[in-house]
Amino acid sequence: MEIDQMENTAHNPDQQMFGLRQIATNGKKRIGLLIGAGAPVSINVGTKGEWEPLIPNIAGLEKMVIKKLSIADEKVYASIKASINNPNLEKILSRVRMLAEVVGADKIFEYTSKDFIALSKCICDVIRDVVGKDLPMPANPFSEVVSWINGINRKYGVEIYTTNYDLLFESALERAKTPYFDGFSGSKSAFFDPSSISKNDLPSRWVRLWKLHGSIGWESNDAGEIVRVPNSTNANMVYPSHIKYDQTQAAPFSSLFERLKDFLNEPDAFLMSSGFSYADAHISSKVLECLLANPSAALFAFQFGTLAEEKNVIDLALKCPGISVFCSDGAIINGIQAKWKIGTPPTKNWHEIRAEYYKDDKFLLGDFKKFARFLATAGSDISQDSIVETEVGTAV
């Protein structure tokens, strides 16, 4: 349904954020985070007033990769890109690896298997260098998310699902001395342990960190198994293929996606996403499938763009009332798409809290930096004595 057909309908951001703050401070709630490439983009490390993200998004990363390619590699890269529908860096890398496997002694784009292997290594080298940035000191959004996690006595451990290759969450958790489990066990050459993921019986104070698209530091050993090696300089990093389905069904990816499915099938599970475009059909379809099957679970998707710009997640929300989408100019809540409209504040001093998420008729939490700050401050400004009973959406 188009917005211009719903002139008499509006969503109140105060009402929704009041409900979200209650959830964020509820220690008995099963809470998960889905974090995409837009998260590190929110951290500005530029000088002289110019915006420079700590780590660029996939499109920005691709530009940096292309700059490092030789003239011959760049030509082949462009040819491969032209042969793919809706191409991005990950799809192109997957195609390069596929060609390296099937070409053999023959040639495609005038490249042999050996040439494609070298091209794959070059791409991975650049990716590792770009996403291997250190987490800035002192305050940053990743540390604020960890502060929010640690500030509440929880019945269930918070689960963080991320498609990013960087080690920013690992750094934030270790700085706060917060124990976490990423599916690997050991130190020198940590091995993947799928049984620990499926059982999920760690203490609730342990954060679960699931790298759905792999990570720098992941390598294939001589036996073909995925291991995590500290301070790895090996370019043999691991990424799931967006072309070859069988690769995403191999460990560790199959176990990580199964963990996401298990989480969303839990009673009353609540997933929040930030910096995630929902262009990854493998993840989006899994989320939709689980939420349709489990009406007690819910997803709050915080998007940086407008309703018109966030088509991927909008399509999901229109199919499933358990998916609520919060964009800069409006939202989809319980399947209803509408613009924002401020209403009666839910508490006496709510205007101070409102400034954290809404300004100049624009909803701000699509920015990961604003989203993290909102979580970190959740509960600190709410006086229970002044709360006015507020009706919130069924997704809350």
Question: What does this entry look like structurally?
Answer:
The protein is of the alpha/beta class. It has 15 helices and 16 strands. The strands form three sheets. A ten-stranded mixed β-sheet has the order 1-14-13-12-11-10-2-3-7-4, with helices on both faces. The chain starts with 9 loop residues before the first strand and ends in a 19-residue tail after the last helix.
Element layout with pairings:
Blueprint lengths: L9 E2 L1 H12 L5 E6 L2 H4 L16 H11 L2 H12 L6 H14 L10 H19 L9 H10 L8 E4 L5 H8 L4 E2 L2 E2 L4 E3 L1 H6 L7 E5 L6 E3 L5 E3 L16 H4 L4 H12 L4 E6 L6 H13 L4 E5 L8 H9 L3 E4 L3 E4 L2 E5 L9 H5 L3 E2 L2 E2 L4 H10 L19
Parallel strand pairs: 1-14, 2-3, 2-10, 3-7, 4-7, 10-11, 11-12
Antiparallel strand pairs: 5-6, 6-9, 8-9, 12-13, 13-14, 15-16
Helix pairs in contact: 3-6, 5-6, 7-15, 11-12
Comma- or semicolon-separated keywords:
396 residues, disordered C terminus, alpha/beta, four-stranded antiparallel beta sheet, 16 strands, ten-stranded mixed beta sheet
> What structural category do the secondary elements indicate?
alpha/beta
How many beta-strand segments? 16
Strand residues, percent = 5-15%
Structure annotation, total helices: 15
Q: What are the segments in which pLDDT stays under 50 over at least 5 consecutive residues? A: 1-6, 381-396
User: What is the alpha-carbon Rg in Å?
Assistant: 22 Å
Strands of the biggest beta sheet: in what spatial order?
1-14-13-12-11-10-2-3-7-4
Largest sheet: 10 strands, mixed
Distance between the termini: 22 Å
Mean pLDDT: 88
**Helical amount:** 25-40%
Query: What is the approximate shape?
Result: globular
